[in-house]
What we know:
By secondary structure, the protein is an alpha/beta fold. It contains seven helices and five strands, in the order βββαβαβααααα.
Amino acid sequence: MIEVNGRKLDEWGNVAFDKDGLIDLLMKGSELSRELLALDSSDIHRFNKLCKEWDHPQDQLLFYKEPEISVEEWDASFQSSWFTPEPYKSMDVLDWLSSRCTTEVQIQRVAHEWMLFEQHGMTSVLNLLIYLVDNFRERKIVWGVGRGSSVASYILYLIGIHKVDSIAFDLDIGEFLK
Protein backbone atom coordinates (compact mmCIF):
# COMPACT_ATOMS: atom_id res chain seq x y z
CA MET A 1 0.00 0.00 0.00
CA ILE A 2 1.09 3.53 -0.76
CA GLU A 3 0.37 6.03 2.02
CA VAL A 4 -0.25 9.72 1.35
CA ASN A 5 -1.79 12.27 3.73
CA GLY A 6 -3.96 9.92 5.75
CA ARG A 7 -4.94 7.87 2.71
CA LYS A 8 -3.67 4.50 1.63
CA LEU A 9 -3.91 3.22 -1.93
CA ASP A 10 -3.71 -0.51 -2.56
CA GLU A 11 -2.77 -2.42 -5.74
CA TRP A 12 -6.44 -2.73 -6.75
CA GLY A 13 -6.98 1.04 -6.71
CA ASN A 14 -8.94 1.08 -3.44
CA VAL A 15 -8.42 4.09 -1.20
CA ALA A 16 -8.73 3.66 2.55
CA PHE A 17 -8.57 6.47 5.09
CA ASP A 18 -7.02 6.46 8.50
CA LYS A 19 -8.44 8.62 11.31
CA ASP A 20 -6.40 11.68 10.25
CA GLY A 21 -7.48 11.29 6.61
CA LEU A 22 -11.14 11.16 7.64
CA ILE A 23 -10.75 14.22 9.87
CA ASP A 24 -9.07 16.01 6.96
CA LEU A 25 -12.07 15.21 4.74
CA LEU A 26 -14.47 16.59 7.35
CA MET A 27 -12.37 19.73 7.85
CA LYS A 28 -12.54 20.35 4.09
CA GLY A 29 -16.33 20.14 4.16
CA SER A 30 -16.70 16.66 2.68
CA GLU A 31 -19.34 14.33 3.99
CA LEU A 32 -18.48 10.88 5.21
CA SER A 33 -20.33 8.36 3.10
CA ARG A 34 -20.85 4.59 3.01
CA GLU A 35 -18.53 4.44 -0.01
CA LEU A 36 -15.55 5.50 2.07
CA LEU A 37 -13.29 2.77 3.37
CA ALA A 38 -11.68 3.25 6.77
CA LEU A 39 -8.57 1.57 8.08
CA ASP A 40 -9.31 -0.50 11.16
CA SER A 41 -8.71 1.42 14.38
CA SER A 42 -10.26 1.82 17.81
CA ASP A 43 -11.29 5.38 16.90
CA ILE A 44 -13.29 4.20 13.87
CA HIS A 45 -14.92 1.45 15.96
CA ARG A 46 -15.87 4.12 18.51
CA PHE A 47 -17.29 6.33 15.72
CA ASN A 48 -19.39 3.44 14.38
CA LYS A 49 -20.62 2.60 17.91
CA LEU A 50 -21.70 6.21 18.42
CA CYS A 51 -23.52 6.17 15.08
CA LYS A 52 -25.56 3.21 16.33
CA GLU A 53 -26.21 4.78 19.75
CA TRP A 54 -27.34 8.09 18.21
CA ASP A 55 -29.65 6.31 15.80
CA HIS A 56 -27.55 6.95 12.69
CA PRO A 57 -26.49 3.43 11.69
CA GLN A 58 -26.43 4.49 8.02
CA ASP A 59 -23.46 6.77 8.81
CA GLN A 60 -21.19 3.96 9.98
CA LEU A 61 -18.00 3.56 8.01
CA LEU A 62 -17.00 0.38 6.24
CA PHE A 63 -13.61 -1.06 7.02
CA TYR A 64 -11.03 -1.67 4.33
CA LYS A 65 -10.55 -5.34 3.51
CA GLU A 66 -7.96 -6.53 1.01
CA PRO A 67 -9.68 -8.19 -1.96
CA GLU A 68 -9.49 -11.98 -1.98
CA ILE A 69 -8.53 -12.17 -5.67
CA SER A 70 -5.26 -11.24 -7.32
CA VAL A 71 -4.83 -7.90 -9.08
CA GLU A 72 -4.72 -9.78 -12.41
CA GLU A 73 -8.04 -11.57 -11.70
CA TRP A 74 -9.59 -8.28 -10.58
CA ASP A 75 -8.44 -6.52 -13.77
CA ALA A 76 -9.78 -9.32 -15.96
CA SER A 77 -13.17 -9.28 -14.22
CA PHE A 78 -13.60 -5.55 -14.80
CA GLN A 79 -12.27 -5.55 -18.37
CA SER A 80 -15.11 -7.87 -19.34
CA SER A 81 -17.69 -5.38 -18.03
CA TRP A 82 -16.39 -2.23 -19.74
CA PHE A 83 -18.81 -0.53 -22.07
CA THR A 84 -17.12 -0.91 -25.43
CA PRO A 85 -19.85 -0.71 -28.07
CA GLU A 86 -19.93 -2.52 -31.37
CA PRO A 87 -18.14 -2.36 -33.76
CA TYR A 88 -15.23 -1.48 -31.43
CA LYS A 89 -15.72 -4.47 -29.14
CA SER A 90 -15.36 -7.01 -31.94
CA MET A 91 -12.91 -5.17 -34.18
CA ASP A 92 -9.62 -6.79 -35.12
CA VAL A 93 -7.31 -4.30 -33.44
CA LEU A 94 -4.14 -5.91 -34.72
CA ASP A 95 -5.40 -5.60 -38.30
CA TRP A 96 -6.48 -2.00 -37.59
CA LEU A 97 -3.00 -1.17 -36.23
CA SER A 98 -1.18 -2.94 -39.06
CA SER A 99 -3.15 -0.98 -41.65
CA ARG A 100 -1.65 2.21 -40.20
CA CYS A 101 1.94 1.00 -40.60
CA THR A 102 3.90 2.07 -43.67
CA THR A 103 7.31 0.51 -42.98
CA GLU A 104 8.64 -2.87 -41.93
CA VAL A 105 10.07 -1.32 -38.75
CA GLN A 106 6.59 -0.10 -37.77
CA ILE A 107 5.02 -3.50 -38.50
CA GLN A 108 7.66 -5.26 -36.40
CA ARG A 109 7.22 -2.81 -33.53
CA VAL A 110 3.44 -3.28 -33.56
CA ALA A 111 3.86 -7.07 -33.60
CA HIS A 112 6.30 -6.93 -30.68
CA GLU A 113 4.10 -4.60 -28.62
CA TRP A 114 0.97 -6.62 -29.45
CA MET A 115 2.65 -9.71 -28.02
CA LEU A 116 3.41 -7.80 -24.81
CA PHE A 117 -0.16 -6.48 -24.55
CA GLU A 118 -1.40 -10.07 -24.98
CA GLN A 119 0.99 -11.36 -22.32
CA HIS A 120 -0.39 -8.75 -19.91
CA GLY A 121 -4.00 -9.57 -20.87
CA MET A 122 -4.54 -6.00 -22.03
CA THR A 123 -5.65 -6.29 -25.67
CA SER A 124 -9.27 -5.48 -24.79
CA VAL A 125 -8.01 -2.17 -23.37
CA LEU A 126 -6.94 -1.23 -26.91
CA ASN A 127 -10.48 -1.71 -28.25
CA LEU A 128 -11.78 0.65 -25.59
CA LEU A 129 -9.03 3.22 -26.23
CA ILE A 130 -9.78 3.33 -29.97
CA TYR A 131 -13.44 3.92 -29.12
CA LEU A 132 -12.55 6.70 -26.65
CA VAL A 133 -10.16 8.49 -29.02
CA ASP A 134 -12.72 8.33 -31.85
CA ASN A 135 -15.31 9.86 -29.52
CA PHE A 136 -12.89 12.54 -28.33
CA ARG A 137 -12.19 13.51 -31.92
CA GLU A 138 -15.87 13.46 -32.90
CA ARG A 139 -16.78 15.71 -29.97
CA LYS A 140 -13.67 17.91 -30.35
CA ILE A 141 -12.47 17.03 -26.84
CA VAL A 142 -8.82 17.87 -26.23
CA TRP A 143 -6.70 15.25 -24.48
CA GLY A 144 -3.02 15.05 -23.55
CA VAL A 145 -0.18 15.05 -26.06
CA GLY A 146 1.62 12.40 -24.03
CA ARG A 147 3.62 12.11 -20.89
CA GLY A 148 5.15 9.46 -18.74
CA SER A 149 5.87 5.91 -19.78
CA SER A 150 2.87 5.65 -22.14
CA VAL A 151 4.86 7.49 -24.82
CA ALA A 152 7.10 4.42 -25.12
CA SER A 153 4.21 2.59 -26.81
CA TYR A 154 3.99 2.87 -30.59
CA ILE A 155 0.57 1.19 -30.48
CA LEU A 156 -0.76 3.98 -28.24
CA TYR A 157 0.76 6.50 -30.66
CA LEU A 158 -1.09 4.88 -33.59
CA ILE A 159 -4.35 4.90 -31.63
CA GLY A 160 -3.85 8.57 -30.85
CA ILE A 161 -3.47 8.41 -27.09
CA HIS A 162 -0.35 10.53 -27.40
CA LYS A 163 1.58 12.30 -30.14
CA VAL A 164 5.09 10.98 -29.46
CA ASP A 165 6.40 8.64 -32.15
CA SER A 166 8.30 6.14 -30.00
CA ILE A 167 10.09 4.69 -33.03
CA ALA A 168 11.40 8.09 -34.13
CA PHE A 169 12.70 8.75 -30.61
CA ASP A 170 13.93 5.14 -30.10
CA LEU A 171 11.87 4.68 -26.92
CA ASP A 172 11.87 1.22 -25.35
CA ILE A 173 8.39 -0.34 -24.89
CA GLY A 174 9.78 -2.00 -21.77
CA GLU A 175 9.45 1.36 -20.04
CA PHE A 176 5.66 1.20 -20.48
CA LEU A 177 4.74 -2.43 -19.86
CA LYS A 178 6.89 -3.25 -16.85
